[in-house]
Amino acid sequence: MANRSRIIVTGGMGFIGSHTAVELSIADYDVILVDDLSNSDISVLEGIKKLCKTEVYFENIDLKNRLACFSIFEKYDNIKGVIHFAAHKAVGESVGNPMKYYDNNINVLLNILYALVNFDIQNLIFSSSCTVYGETKDLPVTEQTEMKETASPYGKTKQMGEAIINDFTVAYPTHNAISLRYFNPIGAHPSAVIGELPLGKPENLMPYITQTAIGLRECLSVFGGDYNTPDGTAIRDYIHVVDLAQAHVVALNRLIHNLNGKSHERFNLGTGKGISVLDVIKSFERTSGVSLNYEITKRRKGDMEAIYADTELSRSVLKWEAKLSLDDMTRTAWQWEQELRKKKE
Ligand code: WQD
Predict the structure, then answer these.
(1) Mutate which of 300, 301, 304 for ligand 1 pocket (most atoms within 8 A of beta carbon)
(2) What are φ and ψ of residue 149, in 5° steps?
(3) What is the DSSP string of 198-224?
(4) Closest ligand 1 atom to Cα of 185
(5) CATH of span 6-186+238-269
(6) What gap in Å lies between CA 183 and CA 203, rounded to an integer?
(7) Does the annotation mark 154 as catalytic?
(8) C-alpha of residue 185 to centroid of ligand 1, in Å
């Protein structure tokens, strides 16, 4: 029997998964990374191991295959919980290819839930998203804000995921879950050893900014300058990925130590601050010293005008709040981009 508690991290080679693996190690857990590498790169494993003091195991598994999923739980003992990140997450892609999203995001979740029952693992942390709120005007959003119809199949898989988990924890009362609703995770580990690693042209704002600044992209298009916001650009709640990773360890420990109030809890993970695209650009220029080449273009289909979190529940119940600033986010994102390019030279 392993002496240290072990945690399975599905999607553990991804942006948030890799940063969470490091924070789990700091909290003295052994980490079992399970990833099919469909949207991540094996090079991330070296970075994670460099930053971890405890055991880090990697299993290249397609979790849509139930037997393969079960094989992980058979192979390792002393598993105290699962943090489930593994999912496709490109909002735009999901509109054009819904079956890929339902097949992967729902079936993988079902296999994980079957495994939790089969191997009697009680604690699940589910990677949810602010996308579950849909096109709400009711800001800042609280965990009680009514979920609206979400434009993307990706968002629907997160809404369904939470509903499936809810029914699961009712049917299996010894099993507990916390769904964490992320806002916009950006930035990188301060060591610049791990960070966001979009394969191909980045969909998200921050990697597009850093790739433009380093000369990989010609010009950043700011999608829309005519929103009803102070500077006309869309507003989001950006949160440092390390803050987000630490919240996962807090949530996991809440379940392991039976501190949860009910069998399925949900928490917003944001800073509570509404930040515009131009705010992010200004912060980036301040922290990097680079003058960014950008132009305001038309809005991107499906984008919301504004969304940001009410963080009261995370602060008062989860006993967690984001500590890092927007400048910490843009500074670390830039340091990571520069390190990445050095490695590629
Ligand atoms: C942020 C802002 C864009 C790129 C998505 C998912 C969400 C979560 C985070 C998974 C928006 C603008 C962007 C660009 C731009 N992912 N932008 N130029 O769409 O808020 O959230 O990623 O959970 O669920 O929906 O993130 O980074 O794409 O956009 O102007 O080249 O930056 O219009 O206002 P988004 P994003």
Answers:
(1) 300
(2) -55, 125
(3) -SSS--SHHHHHHHHHTTSSS-EEEE-
(4) 9
(5) 3.40.50.720
(6) 15
(7) yes
(8) 10
Q: Which residue has the tokens 């987000």?
A: 244
Q: What is the pLDDT of residue 292?
A: 98
Residues 217 and 219: their CA atoms lie apart, in Å, by 6
Q: Is 205-236+272-344 CATH 3.90.25.10?
A: yes
- The span from the CA of 210 to the CA of 225, in Å, is 21
The token pair at 37 is: 């590498």
> For the chain, which residues make up each domain, given as ranges?
6-186+238-269, 205-236+272-344
- The token duo for 74 is 């058979």
Global pTM value: 0.97
Residue 2 has pLDDT above 70, yes or no: no
Q: How confident is the model over 10-58, as pLDDT tens digits? A: 999 999 999 999 999 999 999 999 999 999 999 999 999 999 999 999 9
Cα of 163 from ligand 1 centre, angstroms: 25
Name the residue at shortest CA distance from atom 30 of ligand 1: 222
- Which helix H or strand E contains 56, and what residues bound it? strand 56-59
pLDDT at 1 over 80: no
Give the model's pLDDT for residue 199: 86
Pocket of ligand 1 (CB under 6 A): 89, 91, 129, 131, 182, 184, 203-205, 208, 220-223, 234, 236, 277, 300, 303
Please state the atom number of ligand 1 nearest to the C-alpha of residue 236.
Answer: 20
Cα–Cα dist 112/164, whole Å: 12
- Helix, coil or strand: residue 161: helix
Question: Pairing between strand 220-223 and 294-297?
Answer: parallel
Task: Give 88-133 pLDDT, tens digit per residue.
Answer: 998 888 999 999 999 999 999 999 999 999 999 999 999 999 999 9
For the stretch 250-287, pLDDT in tens is 999 999 999 999 999 999 999 999 999 999 999 999 99
Q: Which of 183, 283, 187, 277 is nearest to 237 (CA)?
A: 183
Tokens 């191991």 found at: 49
